[in-house]
Specification:
The chain is mostly helical. 53% of the residues lie in helices and 3% in strands. The protein contains 18 helices and five strands. β1 and β2 form a beta hairpin. α10 crosses α18. The model has no long low-confidence stretch (mean pLDDT 94). The chain binds acetyl coenzyme *A. Acetyl coenzyme *A binds next to α17.
Length: 412
């Protein structure tokens, strides 16, 4: 028997098969712990989320995305020298090899940015091969800083190129988040005004997405990383997993669903009825979570952020009204109550992103940039685990028993 620092209990079955010939069967891994981890704690019943012990609410109020990334990756908050050095490194590595532009140019115009991002992250390894003469720690520090910095540049680059616009380079005088907004929206004929409140909204958005323990994409990063593949390839696997509409792709699907409700007159009730109909594959996007059986703490902060950002911009988004109405009606519905379905982080995040000017097909890329520190921290934890093991689940075979090859001329 094992017990974690927050009282979570587990049965260690690592020698079960050796001793009994039995394995456990747990499709979807809902009852399976794959590792011991000291990075993120969440309690799905109480709606708690903490990075390295610190509540996400405190980080969203007090910290920056870069500082939170440092905390996740290094296990402690940085002092001012450490933070400045980290910021400097992120600035030094923010440019992308010019030859990578030809890659971007050759993707078909309609490509989904998540597919492009996943390919480009794998390609980074060819442009930035292993560094000779450095210790493993130095090499990891440079590789992870490159990733954090260049993924942000590549995301903005892909947006600009998809529109046929000139690429905007990162600026050393701007913070991580301000730089991203500037790379996305500045143009030689119309300068982008950097608004501190919008920069702060992006900081909070990315802090809230920075880690979420063993979710689908993080499990993918750890599993692929367990084959001792390089960090770029492991992160690329995480990006591919995050793309799924049941995972990070949900933020795009939420906006598409709200737009559909709007196009159908604005009443969410028929959509809730569809979600309850077992013959209809439709689900309420942005509702439900494998671990949270109460309100997702990130969704609460994100909801408050919608009002703040829209107020600041003096705009009104009718999709926010539809979202609030949908939540109100859904939360009184017996099916939704019985199934413990609450809004998750993706339900309100799209409205914040829309207000910042981010196009809908870039929403999941925004999630991926935010999740990078978590993926990196989890990969690093796995790579330095003295009890590390190649991940290789077993199965219960249900196919035919022994049968023999039949020559094609003798087959019926
Ligand atoms: N709408 C309608 N019914 C739902 C929903 C939903 N959004 N989510 C779960 N259910 C129902 C299922 O139909 C099932 O009902 P049943 O037991 O009567 O057959 C029951 O709740 C359990 O569903 P599972 O899919 O087994 O639960 P799981 O824990 O695997 O689901 C998931 C988690 C995949 C996130 C699910 O809630 C879902 O599909 N939500 C919509 C997509 C979404 O918002 N994803 C983002 C998640 S957060 C993130 O990844 C950042």
């Amino acid at each position: 028997m094992l017990e974690g620092t927050e009282g979570e209990k587990a049965i260690d079955i690592s020698r079960l098969r050796e001793l009994t010939k039995y394995i456990t069967l747990d499709p979807g891994f809902a009852n399976t712990g794959s590792c011991l981890s000291s990075i993120t704690f969440m309690d799905g019943e109480k709606g708690i989320l903490r990075y390295r012990g610190i509540p996400v609410q405190e980080l969203a109020e007090e910290s920056s995305f870069v500082e939170t990334a440092y905390l996740l990756i290094n296990g402690k908050l940085p002092n001012s020298n450490e933070l400045n050095r980290f910021r400097m490194l992120l600035n030094d590595h923010s440019l992308v090899h010019e030859d990578m532009r030809t890659f971007f140019q050759n993707f078909p115009r309609q490509s989904h940015p998540m597919g492009i991002l996943s390919s480009m992250v794998t390609a980074l390894r060819s442009f930035y091969p292993a560094l000779e003469g450095l210790s493993e720690t130095e090499e990891t520090t440079i590789t992870l800083t490159r990733l954090l910095s260049k993924v942000r540049t590549m995301a903005a680059m892909s947006y600009k190129m998809s529109r046929g616009h000139m690429v905007v380079y990162p600026r050393p005088d701007l913070s991580y988040c301000a730089n991203f907004l500037n790379m996305m929206f500045d143009s030689p004929v119309k300068h982008y005004h950097i608004d501190d409140d919008l920069v702060q909204a992006l900081n909070v958005f990315w802090i809230l997405h920075a880690d979420h323990e063993q979710n689908c994409s993080t499990a993918a990063v750890r599993l692929v990383g367990s084959a001792r593949v390089n960090l770029y390839a492991a992160i690329s696997a995480g990006i591919a997993a995050l793309w799924g509409p049941l995972h990070g792709g949900a933020n795009q699907k939420v906006i598409e669903m709200l737009e559909e409700i709007q196009a159908n007159g604005g009443d969410s009730r028929p959509f809730i009825e569809r979600a309850k109909d077992k013959k209809d594959p439709f689900r309420l996007m942005g509702f439900g979570h494998r671990v949270y059986k109460t309100y997702d703490p990130r969704a609460k902060i994100m909801k408050a952020m919608c009002d703040k950002v829209l107020d600041k911009l003096h705009t009104h988004d009718p999709l926010l009204d539809i979202a609030v109405q949908l939540e109100e009606v859904a939360r009184k519905d017996q099916y939704i109550i019985d199934h413990n379905l609450y809004p998750n982080v993706d339900f309100y995040s799209g409205i914040v992103l829309r207000a910042l000017g981010i196009p809908t097909n870039m929403f999941t890329v925004m999630f991926a940039i935010g999740r990078l520190p978590g993926w990196i921290a989890q990969w690093k934890e796995d790579a330095s685990d003295p009890n590390w093991k190649l991940s290789r689940p077993r199965q219960i075979y249900t196919g035919p028993n022994l049968s023999h090859y039949v020559l094609i001329k003798e087959r019926g």
